[in-house]
């Protein structure tokens, strides 16, 4: 190895560029093989980076230095000096190589480099050399949209001015005479728009940062200025794109279309307000809607001829963007029709086959933009296309879009026919099943096709969405058109949605007889919809006879539903399995009205079965009493925990369908939508509380807080360092070690941040990012090394109790003459709370309680806290969210838990709280908290009840989760309740309970001793002969002496408490109503 390094060193010191490049490649090869070639670092720095050499050699030298395990205090100055000097080098290739390396730099080096080299960067963008302009545009297009740079610009006005100038120059370079430069400038603008529109955080930055209002305002300003430039010079940009080669023309489409859409929809005005939130002088665009529509039409006319291109990617790009323009105010269905036909032609010609999922997604997402006739004609064809998709999530999304559009068309056509318009043929939901293949699948009993189950489930779940109130949409766009059409069909009758739902039930009736390898999710959906319709028609469906004023449609629907009920009873006799019966009972039981006792026809079926099971306990189905991991008694979606593959497939399909339906019908609003509707204040996020890591007498003050990014599984620790000495510290090193599940992405065990020239009492910011590998407690260990003898070559002996590896010792020994001996300051570890690795998991109470019994891992603990209050006055008089006995658990609302449900018994200050969460890595965590007040030893009703005893029960899908929680229960309670609850060991709980029981027994014994002696019992004959009478000679009533067991008495006492609570709530509701 020494001979090889000597040979490489000799080649590097030669003046031959070929020998130097070969030597660098050989060194990179050895480094990639895991061999240590650090001895070449000084030679590479002096002979290549600091000396005139070719651009290729300088690029290879930079790559080699980054690959070597060099300490940052050696590597960072080399990188900065070499890049800064090469940027002003006369050879444009060398300058291009230098500026091309900017995106690979870590965040802490960018600020100083960009600030010092801004003039050279601006000159490079205007250089007469095409290669330098191209390299500058490519580098800045990757660098400027980054999150860390946006944050720097938000806090550094000088850098913000430079970056704004560079963006303006990038927009101008879209008109550059060189095709490569112009195309790259278009790509840079597209990347800026995508970063802001999709709100995707850039993965390019070395340190993960969370942007706030400042970074958002920076991006909004850049995007608004770029949109104004494109819109004002759209004709010139269109002309420039027409003379580009076909392979480069594709990159010019999206920036033009996006800018036109932002202007036509008025979003650019929102961006201006976001960029300057406090400026009230910002006015909207003065262009009229007609001028905007003309501009959009010009872009459509520009793109339309390319739909007949022979290049499939170009046809697809143009078609997708034309669909986006068809959705702006004033858009025409002809634009969407032309784009849809062109995209479908790619499918028919079997071209662009690798993008068939994207083709289907594009069409079904924009299906509502087409005219009514074309929508109807596409339904059957789209079903065949969806059947051929490989990814299940793509199929679910496409089916959700098709089903929603079909229901929308059905409602719209029916309402139009009621208003006297000519009906359009084929608009019924039943038309979806007119295809021969779909019809055969539906009527076949033994078919194993999953597609028919997916179709029935998606259609039924979409019908359920129609029964819910439609979401409010204030702005124009995709959702407003769909919701407007749905509102048009449901606005003149609350039960109009039941008509297409009845069609769905009729056409899906054969699914009850399916043999799906014990899969029953589709059948379950069908039964729930049928029971829902029966309940509606029987309880609030209106009149049923002609004498009562019923219309022909009402009578027809009533007859159809009655026939479906009878047919269901006949079908159930053929497939009378416990699973199907259980699902029907479950669906019916959800509609029992226990307060008014209103029943409907199908409920008698369930009541008869329940009565039969009660009278025949020996024949009871064992699944009712024991959780076997099968639906409906457990409802989780963790495939590995199901004993049967069919149950696992059911839960997997249910999860996919629910996710697709939720994202389509009631999607979470994007941040840009929130900004348009609620203003910029909605994005305000309070920074987490910082904790101090140093002591009061330490020479440096350090406080830290962290920000978590569950998407990438990273945690960023932000540090504030304050020099408390009276001296200026020329150099301070911040070393951060990791423990637990944390790791550095580069593979090193610790990271170092070098801070220079720390002035006294002047705070300095620094940050470190680490990844999280699994659910485990994590800590970051911060150590500060400051050099009081930096540059003097002095020494100082400081003993320490730490050990370092040999390589670190050698590096320190070599640096000691220059740096001097460091003073080491060890800080307190920064602990990451374990709940920080959780995410809220929204689920219904029914789903939660079905899931709970089947979770295999469980841990329990007891905690206590005190609260102020006295008896019923402190509990029943308060609202649930402000009850004083919940004061110790109020911080859970700010933790990453979803509160599924809560039950309160205010008369005894007791409660049950249920929470659901998931780990970053997919594991499910459920937590129940049972609370009861500890009554004081004096039994007077006016005494204070100041202690709450809480039982925490945590169940999880993986035993490793509960083991980590159980390893430190007090730490878990502190993390969840912010230290408000104190852990009580079980032996102390049992001892306290035994003490209370002993005192109670002693009191009972005293009461018994104080009672008079009981007379001897009479015989049965005497009791029968003599009738009991009171002092007035009247017969006595029944005795109040209880003959119940202890368990029965406790159960009845709990019932009495619940009834008392219920009566109290009824009184409150009556008083509020008055």
Shape: globular
Count helical runs.
41
Q: Could you tell me the strand content as a percent range?
A: 5-15%
Task: Give the biggest sheet.
Answer: 7 strands, antiparallel
Low-confidence runs: 200-210, 620-643, 793-803, 810-817, 870-881, 936-943, 1023-1027, 1036-1042
**Helix-strand makeup class:** alpha+beta
As a percent range, the share of helical residues equals 40-55%
Indicate the mean pLDDT.
75
Through-space gap between termini: 93 Å
- Tally of strands: 17
How large, in whole angstroms, is the Cα Rg? 37 Å
Written description of the protein model:
The protein is α+β, with helices and mostly antiparallel strands and 1074 residues long. The chain is built from 41 helices and 17 strands. Strands 11, 12, 13, 14, 15, 16 and 17 form a seven-stranded antiparallel β-sheet that branches. A hairpin with a 4-residue loop joins strand 2 (700-709) and strand 3. The protein is globular, with a radius of gyration of 37 Å. InterPro entries: TPLATE (IPR037501). Residues 1022-1031 have a biased composition (Acidic residues). It comes from Zizania palustris (Northern wild rice). This is Protein TPLATE.
Brief summary of the model shown:
By secondary structure, this protein is α+β, with helices and mostly antiparallel strands.
Question: Which tags fit this structure?
Answer:
single chain; 1074 residues; alpha+beta; 7-stranded antiparallel β-sheet; 5-stranded antiparallel β-sheet; 41 helices; 12% strand; globular
Secondary-structure map:
Layout: H1 2-12, H2 17-32, H3 41-49, H4 55-67, H5 72-87, H6 92-100, H7 107-116, H8 118-125, H9 130-143, H10 147-155, H11 157-172, H12 179-198, H13 213-232, H14 234-242, H15 246-249, H16 253-265, H17 267-275, H18 289-303, H19 312-326, H20 333-348, H21 356-365, H22 372-387, H23 392-418, H24 436-443, H25 450-467, H26 478-490, H27 498-507, H28 521-539, H29 552-574, H30 578-589, H31 603-615, H32 622-625, H33 645-665, H34 671-678, E1 691-692, E2 700-709, E3 714-723, E4 729-739, E5 742-743, E6 750-758, E7 764-772, E8 778-786, H35 806-819, E9 823-826, E10 830-832, E11 838-840, H36 845-851, E12 857-866, E13 898-905, E14 910-919, E15 924-934, E16 947-956, H37 959-966, H38 969-977, E17 982-984, H39 986-1010, H40 1020-1025, H41 1046-1073
Antiparallel strand pairs: 1-2, 2-3, 3-7, 4-6, 4-8, 5-7, 8-9, 8-10, 11-14, 12-16, 12-17, 13-14, 14-15, 15-16
Helix pairs in contact: 1-2, 2-4, 3-4, 4-6, 5-6, 6-9, 8-11, 9-12, 10-11, 10-13, 11-13, 12-13, 13-16, 13-17, 16-18, 16-19, 19-20, 21-23, 22-23, 23-25, 23-26, 23-33, 25-27, 25-28, 25-33, 27-28, 27-29, 28-29, 28-30, 30-31
